[in-house]
Amino acid sequence: MPLKAFTMPKWGIEMSEGMIGEWMVKEGKPFARGDVIALIETDKITNEVEAEADGKFVRIVAGEGETHPVGALLAVFGEDEPAAEVDAFIAAFRPADASMAASDTEDMIAEAAAETAVPPEAPTIEDRLAISPAARARAQEARLDPTSISGTGRGGRIMLQDVEQALRPVVAPNLKGPYVMAPHTGAFASPVARRLAVQHNIDLTQLKGTGPRGRICKEDVLAVARSSAAAGKVEVLAMTPMRKAIARRLTAAKQQIPHFYLRRRVRADRLLAARAAAGKRASVNDYLVRAVALALRDVPALNIQVHGNDIHRMPRADISVAVATDKGLLTPVLRGAERLSLDEIARAISDLAARARASKLKQEEIEGGSFSLSNLGPYGVEQFDAIINPPQGAILAVGAARPEPIDDDGAIRIAPVLHVSLSCDHRAIDGADGARFLAVLASYLEQPEQL
To answer: Which parts of 51-100 are beta strand (E)?
Structure first.
């Protein structure tokens, strides 16, 4: 088979880059159609990339942990082509530039047209070919046969950027010779191990490899890096795409959304007693989600999204539940929570949380919520304020229940109390609406038979 490029795919209109989480196949080892060949992390989820046909990688270009833009070359499909041919293919490859200006495109098309004395006949593009309408029109306009193009869209669909790249003239590579990675010359190590050694300033010649035939592998370098960190050296970690997205979104939220905060104490003794009587089938967090859902139903002014100057009042309580993972905070959405029983909520949240920690969530399962709940009580945090997750209008922060004095029908007694904090977007929500929501929420939690 001819050499073909495996490039960084694009999932969703906002995706601009991705990180190679893990290669699931080895260079030179064949794989079958449907096999998972790579895990690619975006700013929200980890995607499993499946092989569209039988084949193998003759060269893996991108290393694990590296971030590359959409359309960048990650690996090369092939059979047993000579290494020089593979090198030439990689050197000649030019990634698609989705941000290319229209004038640049017109200039390149004009140059290509000037080089072609007799334009070829317009090819016949079969209807069954997986190609977008814009790409089909562009290929016909340029008299380009798209069947030889490797698509970067979902399922290998040929996109406009793929056609534009195919129309670009091939530029001869400017080869400058090998890059010497001193002091690692002569060390028998994998490419990933070499890159990590440079990043952590580790001399590979001093390491003993645990891989086949004594090869220094990724884990050997990481073990030294971890021991160096434990010895007091600063460990520098690059932000993952998810961490970058969290930083970007929350910075924008604090800068652009006028937050105000409402705080309240809620007695929790009856809630904890009701949960114990029910055999603890549901967690305290499940009770909180149920109470929030009913409170949003009763006070719809908080069940909203804010889009520019428009307030979208949502028809159902789609609650984003914060889940801590080893890669960052995810907020899977529980749809129509006001229509679910407590047991149904418990099962649904358990499933969402498990798949969030295993990076198995789908894109649509983390988008479109109308309200967020962040509960740090299980970590012993007593109270805190949360940042609104745009375009939502509010988020509820809940701490751990702790014993405090309360007024119980004129008598002072000690009972567990929850501290809750409601963060609201003042552009769309007034203080009175937020106060009403907290009052209704407290009523449900302090009278758990309503749940």
So the answer is: 57-60, 67-69, 73-77
